[in-house]
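In the design runs reported in the main text, the only information available to the sequence generator was the tokenized backbone. The following block is the verbatim input for one such run; it is reproduced so that readers can re-run the procedure and compare outputs position by position.
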């Protein structure tokens, strides 16, 4: 048998007893010392056994692996703290609509965030979720009603089914007579009371938006251009080859009562808009409805137009 001294490499064993050997070999590499520095001695034990011992001038110390201590980054305790400000910064975001940011002074009473949509086809249903920072913005249903109907989605009227809880508003509608968004109406428009300053995020997740038309047999044909929160190419579906939507986002501060067209002035143009709305020939956005309801009775009608006329004629001092 071939015997190799294999356990001396650690520098612990200094003697190895060999039995029944005919050949003896030593793997000097295992000794972890340079060649020529080791002396071997073969000793007869007198009992039929031999002992091979060695002495080394120096046995090198196996170096400990170096450990590198990574410097600890100092954490700024104010880094994650929102900067102190007396202004309100509103970020309106969405998965489909463009992002917009507006800054308001601390004395702003209300902020209205509107997600507007235009389409060359009518809509049959939609589903969405709006979340907001309720530490700085407060939802009040009274601020989002006019003429006894919700103004969150004016085009849907009372067909909109919505629910508000904590910092979330969920809405959906399905209307077989279809809803027009050809003129660019508010899909979702919410007015908040301002209750704090700093940065406030508002996010609209449009989950579904379905376009439709009525075919020659009177059957509603539909296709979802937004499906599970993603834009879809429906141009390959018959009847929807040219279907398209365009979106915009608007953030407004305090609404100037009586200024229906938002040109910064109260004039006969605003009166005319209310009169046309009253007879059904003019549509108004959510913010326009709020500006038109000058007598604050929750209804936009001829009474509001008359009140604005009196203000223009200086028969009353304010609206």
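Verbatim output:
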């Amino acid at each position: 048998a071939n015997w190799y001294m294999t356990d001396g490499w650690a520098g612990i064993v200094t003697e190895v007893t060999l039995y029944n050997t005919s050949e003896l070999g030593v793997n000097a590499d295992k000794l972890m010392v340079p060649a020529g520095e080791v002396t071997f001695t073969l000793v007869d034990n007198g009992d039929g056994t031999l002992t091979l011992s060695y002495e080394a001038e120096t046995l090198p110390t196996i170096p400990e692996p170096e450990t590198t201590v990574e410097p600890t980054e100092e954490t700024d305790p104010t880094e994650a703290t929102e900067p102190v400000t007396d202004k309100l910064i509103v970020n309106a975001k969405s998965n489909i609509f463009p992002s917009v940011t507006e800054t308001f002074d601390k004395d702003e009473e209300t902020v209205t965030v509107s997600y507007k949509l235009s389409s060359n086809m009518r809509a049959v249903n939609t589903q969405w979720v709006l979340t907001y920072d309720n530490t700085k913005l407060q939802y009040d249903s009274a601020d989002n009603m006019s003429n006894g109907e919700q103004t969150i989605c004016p085009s849907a009227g009372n067909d909109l089914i919505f629910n508000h809880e904590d910092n979330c508003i969920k809405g959906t509608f399905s209307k077989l007579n279809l809803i027009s968004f050809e003129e660019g109406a508010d899909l979702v428009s919410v007015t908040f009371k301002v209750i704090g300053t700093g940065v406030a995020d508002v996010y609209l997740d449009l989950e579904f938006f379905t376009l439709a038309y009525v075919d020659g047999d009177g059957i509603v044909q539909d296709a979802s251009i937004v499906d599970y929160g993603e834009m879809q190419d429906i141009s390959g579906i018959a009847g929807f080859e040219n279907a398209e939507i365009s979106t915009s986002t608007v953030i407004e501060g305090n609404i100037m009562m009586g200024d229906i067209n938002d040109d910064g002035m109260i004039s006969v143009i605003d009166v005319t808009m209310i009169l046309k709305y009253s007879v059904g020939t003019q549509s108004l956005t959510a913010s326009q409805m709020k500006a038109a309801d000058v007598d604050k009775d929750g209804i936009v009608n001829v009474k509001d137009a008359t009140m604005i006329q009196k203000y223009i004629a200086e028969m009353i001092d304010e609206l």
